Amino acid sequence: AINISQPSFSGTDVFGYTSFLAYSTIPNITFYYEFRLKFQLANHHSALQDNLIFFTGQKGQGLNGDDFLELGLRDGRVVYSYNLGSGTATITSKPLDLTLNIHVVHLGRYLQKGWLKVDDQKNKTVTSPGRLVGLNVFSQFYLGGYHEYTPELLPKGYRFKDGFQGCIFDVQVRTSMNQEFKSPGTPEGHPNSGRSVGQCKDSPCRLIKCRNGGKCIEGGSTVYCDCPTGWKGAFCTETVSVCEPEHNPPHLCKQGGTCVPLPDGYTCHCPLGTTGTYCETG
C-alpha cells in the first residue's frame, strides 16, 4: 500500500494501456470552467511524445459533433483542445523551458472563447468555430491516461497516442468565476478508479526486498524482482529445477522424453519407441 498525494504516471505500456486516475464527472462545466495544475516530466524525452494530461468527453470518432475537452503534450509544447459540437478549437503553447523542474498550467473557457497560460509564457486565446457555445460531456474526468486503449477511443480532434510520463498534482477546477477552486472527485480529491499509479519521487522498490541477488524493476506502481540464473519466484527465493524450462542450460531430453530431477542431476524417461540417455535413439 502506497499513500498517493502526488500521482506519478508511467505512460503507455507494451499492450497500449495507460496508467490513469478517473474522477467523477465535473458538474456544471457546460458554459464556463477554469483548470489549474502542475506537472513534472519524467525526463526530457517524454516532453516530445504525444502524452495525454487529462480528458473528458464523448467517445465519438469525428472532428465535428463530439464534445470533448483535453490537455496534453506534443513536441515539447502544451496543447489544449476542446470541441463544443461544431468544430475543434486548439491552443498550442510555446516550447517548454525544460530547465524548469515543475511546470504550471492555467486554462479556461467561457462560451466559445478559450485561453491557456503555461509557466511564464504569455496568455494565448482561441475561439471555437460554429455557433454552439455549450460543452456537453458526461464521461468521467481522466487524468494521466485513459481506462481503455487510448488511441482507439479518444476523439480524433487532437489525438494523443500515449499516457503521461511523470507527475501531475495540485489539479483544481471551478465552473464559475464566483466559486473557489476545488480538486476534482466525489468526495473532493478522491478518484473513482485508477491503474498503475505511483507516488511522485517515491519508488515502490523501497518496499520490496529481492533475495539471492535479485534486482527490483519498476514501471509505474508495478514492481517485480529480476532474478539471477538459478532462482525464481516473486522475491527470487525459489530455486530453478534442472528440469524447468527456465533452467540454464536446459535439459537435453529429446523426442518427447520427460525430464525427472535427481539429487545429482536428472534422467530422461523415454516415450515408447525411443531409447538412450536423452531418448535420442529410435
Automatic annotation (TrEMBL):
<keyword id="KW-0245">EGF-like domain</keyword>
<dbReference type="GO" id="GO:0016020">
    <property type="term" value="C:membrane"/>
</dbReference>
<feature type="domain" description="EGF-like">
    <location>
        <begin position="201"/>
        <end position="237"/>
    </location>
</feature>
<feature type="disulfide bond">
    <location>
        <begin position="227"/>
        <end position="236"/>
    </location>
</feature>
<keyword id="KW-1015">Disulfide bond</keyword>
<dbReference type="Pfam" id="PF00008">
    <property type="entry name" value="EGF"/>
</dbReference>
<dbReference type="Pfam" id="PF02210">
    <property type="entry name" value="Laminin_G_2"/>
</dbReference>
<feature type="domain" description="EGF-like">
    <location>
        <begin position="239"/>
        <end position="280"/>
    </location>
</feature>
<feature type="domain" description="Laminin G">
    <location>
        <begin position="10"/>
        <end position="200"/>
    </location>
</feature>
<dbReference type="GO" id="GO:0005604">
    <property type="term" value="C:basement membrane"/>
</dbReference>
<dbReference type="InterPro" id="IPR000742">
    <property type="entry name" value="EGF"/>
</dbReference>
<dbReference type="GO" id="GO:0005509">
    <property type="term" value="F:calcium ion binding"/>
</dbReference>
<dbReference type="InterPro" id="IPR013320">
    <property type="entry name" value="ConA-like_dom_sf"/>
</dbReference>
<dbReference type="InterPro" id="IPR001791">
    <property type="entry name" value="Laminin_G"/>
</dbReference>
<protein>
    <submittedName>
        <fullName>EYS protein</fullName>
    </submittedName>
</protein>
<dbReference type="InterPro" id="IPR001881">
    <property type="entry name" value="EGF-like_Ca-bd_dom"/>
</dbReference>
<feature type="disulfide bond">
    <location>
        <begin position="270"/>
        <end position="279"/>
    </location>
</feature>
<dbReference type="InterPro" id="IPR050372">
    <property type="entry name" value="Neurexin-related_CASP"/>
</dbReference>
